[in-house]
Amino acid sequence: MSGADALPEPPAQAAVLFGDRLDVAREFAQLLATEASTRGLIGPREVGRLWDRHLLNCAVVADLLPHDARVVDVGSGAGLPGLVLAIRRPDLHVDLVEPLQRRVTFLTEAVGQLGLSDTVRVIRGRAEEPGTLATVGAAEWVTARAVAPLDRLVGWCLPMLQPGGWLLALKGASAAAEVREHRSVIHAVGGRETSVIRCGDGLLSEPTVVVQIRRDASTTRRGMKGRA
Fold this sequence. Notes:
Elements: H1 3-6, H2 12-18, H3 22-38, H4 50-59, E1 70-74, H5 82-88, E2 93-98, H6 101-113, E3 120-124, H7 130-136, E4 139-145, H8 150-157, E5 161-171, H9 175-181, H10 183-188, E6 191-199, E7 208-215, H11 221-224
Parallel strand pairs: 1-2, 1-4, 2-3, 4-5
Antiparallel strand pairs: 5-7, 6-7
């Protein structure tokens, strides 16, 4: 059985979340089940749970983003959550930041095939590299999913934000404990107003847990560089 054959139909929640963009989401799911799986970007065991564990898990985070926001997705991998956000919300402008060439190649192909070239850029690089910082500029929002522990993640991501911008880190059930453990590091690199939010309550069987951190509006970009 191929990945495409094993991919289940989208659950009812997918129609609620994606609306008239469901066909695009379905096409992306097929790409994940076939091309991404074949290239080792998605584990073969993940194909059967792509909708619940990955696509819907990412899609609900779009509810936290204002209209026409610019989003930098760090460590995009196979496009989670960045491409999902761009599919659900065509008003968003999304930069996908990914260091590994094979993932960059997949992301570039997916952006073209899904018709997202007008709103999505693929950038090869690491978040902490000066070249990447120069390319993405000062972002309003940064997202990251399963990239690194929170203490390292804030060191990489907060410098990408404009003062007053927000980091949305998709985490698991231990998010609150991770925030408590790394609160001093978060504060030291300019993180303020840290909170743990559940997205998709009442819609998803397992809501997505997001750590939301605001970059101090008084910090400067130069003062935060080099803290990764």
